[in-house]
Amino acid sequence: MKKYLLIIKLALIGIFTNKVRAFLTMLGIIIGVSSVIAIISIGEGAQSLITGSIKSFGTDTLTVLPGASDESGPPASAFGIVITTLTNDDAKEIEKLPHVLTVTSYISGNGEIVYGSRSVLGNFTGVTADYETTENHDVIEGRFFTKQEERAANRVAVLGSEMKEELFPLTNPLGQKVRINDQTFTVIGVLESKGSQLARNFDNQVIVPLSAAQKILLGFQHVSLIRIKVDTEESVEVTKKRIEDLLIYRHEIKDRDDKDFSVRAVSQALDTFNSITLALSFFLAAIAAISLIVGGIGITNIMLMVVKERTREIGLRKALGAKPFHIKNQFLLEALVLTVIGGILGILAGVGLSVIAYFVINYMGYDWEFVVPLYSIVVSIGISGAIGIIFGTYPANKAAELNPIVAIRYE
Questions:
Q1: Which of 34, 310, 338, 409 could anchor a disulfide with 350, C-beta 3.0 to 4.6 Å?
Q2: What DSSP state is assigned to residue 129?
Q3: CA–CA separation, 167 and 174 (whole Å)
Q4: What domain range is 130 assigned to?
Q5: Domain check: are 346 and 297 in the same one?
């Protein structure tokens, strides 16, 4: 044990004696390890952000979209194809199924929203009266419209928090008239701030009754999606199957493969996004790890130079009784010390980059979580050591094979 500690001590002395050369030797390892650590950390943070965003939709909810698709792919409507087969009558029938608590139909559009001299180009969304419960999105000022107001296509509107600030920064909006594409609506409520989720900004919109959006603003009767809240997360799969059976019957579909709709659970989206972000993180980490190979080649070159510089020392040690495996172990340990120190410095640099990314992304307004998985640190140290052994083996063998007489005479 003392012998190996002495070799490590000699390796450290060599590193600190030639600081610049040692640093340049370790640079590839440092860059590779820090890149891997930073990418995995950012990938974990992105996965946490996306997971939180999806979960905020509720893992006890289902979404019906117009257009068929396979289980992993998006429906046709996601590509901008207008499909008119889904209606609010479908939603009313879904509401009668077991385990279903609330059902909300949606249709959306965009246009100019005006109050007095203030004008905003924004989105309006037509929904049915159970929107608050289905989306867990509460009114903080005024009230939401009732089912009677929705059925009567009343010209009432509920503002998102950002829309309220843009149109009514200093005025109480309740009871005020706004114009949506030149149609007048009375503001009856303001929703709590919910932020952006999956590229959808809940705060920068105007909510109106579905019937008013269809008849007054858009002029058609189909809906763009239906959201269903079920009683428990365990009931999601059975309810999904019942909804599919119901819509197949209502739409007179003869073959299940010819469905004109898609029923999706939030848990499906969660699994899909998790697998995508995990695969992407490891793919990027693998690319970053290429620099570790470059660092390993640098280790080989430097160790060959060290062997050449210390040829006479090797010859003298052999003349005094050192065996080839003693020489080999010495140079392997020196290469190992170099790469492990490089790996530790790379871990510190990677954590530093992750901290910077955490502060920058949070400053941009995202709820970013700082995560540096323990496995990434353990793996980085292990890979660094493996590179030292793999790329240090050839120089160590060269040193062990030197003829002691030739080595002593080497100039």
A1: 34
A2: T
A3: 12
A4: 84-259
A5: yes
Are 123 and 253 in the same domain? yes
**What's the rounded mean pLDDT across residues 61-73?**
74
Q: Is residue 326 part of a domain?
A: yes
Q: Please say if the pLDDT value at position 294 is more than 90.
A: no
Q: Which two tokens stand for residue 357?
A: 């990314």
Confidence of residue 155 (pLDDT cuts 50, 70, 90): very high
Are residues 133 and 238 part of one domain? yes
219: left (phi over 0), alpha (psi -120 to 50) or beta: left
Q: What is the pLDDT of residue 370?
A: 83
- Mean of all residue pLDDT scores within the chain: 82
Q: According to the 3-state scheme, what is the secondary structure of 73-128?
A: CCCHHHHCCCCCCCEHHHHHHHCCCCCEEEEEEEEEEEEEEEECCEEEEEEEEEEC
230-282 residue pLDDT tens: 988 888 889 999 999 999 999 888 887 778 888 888 766 666 666 776 777 77
Global pTM value: 0.61
For residues 99 and 219, membership in a common domain is answered with: yes
Pairing of the two strands 156-159 and 183-191: parallel
271 located within any domain = no
Spatial separation of the C-alpha atoms in residues 235 and 97, rounded to whole Å: 12
Instruction: Assess whether 171 and 213 both reside in one domain.
Output: yes
Q: Total structural domains in the chain?
A: 2
Token pair in block for residue 41: 């950390």
